[in-house]
Write a structure and sequence with these properties.
With 117 residues, the chain is an alpha+beta fold. The chain contains four helices and six strands, in the order H-E-E-E-E-E-H-E-H-H. This is Protein kinase domain-containing protein. Keywords: ATP-binding, Nucleotide-binding.
């Protein structure tokens, strides 16, 4: 499923399309086990987009720059793909399960911890 979803993202990005809502819930699998990306309601053409007004967003799948500055790019889709891969390998578990939106924002946007070794 990861390879199929990655191929779909590659196709979208080669056509300068940002999906902006990549998640397992938006991937369909047909009988031949081909993955199709669906739900293009938040998608935009181009390689960069800044959200101009507040809207409800799926925070658990968003990149740090999207959470902090409402900036979307092809790179933020790649971050969301990483969360999608987590969903796949965790047998459908929701990312950040049990966390509030504020807790997710704090965890995703904080600086990497300092190495202690």
């Amino acid at each position: 499923m990861c390879i199929g979803a990655a191929s779909g993202v590659e196709y979208l990005h080669s056509n300068e399309c940002m999906h902006r809502d990549l998640a397992a819930r938006n991937c369909l699998i047909n009988r031949e086990r081909v993955v199709k990306i669906s739900d293009f309601g938040l998608s935009r053409t181009g390689t960069h987009y800044v959200l101009k007004s507040a809207m409800k967003l799926p925070i658990k799948w968003l990149a740090p720059e999207t959470i902090s500055a409402f900036t979307f790019s092809l790179k933020t889709d790649v971050f969301s793909f990483g969360v999608l891969a987590y969903e796949i390998f965790a047998n459908g578990a929701e990312p950040w399960e049990g966390c509030t939106n504020a807790e997710v924002k704090a965890a995703v946007c904080r600086l990497p911890p300092t190495a202690t070794f």
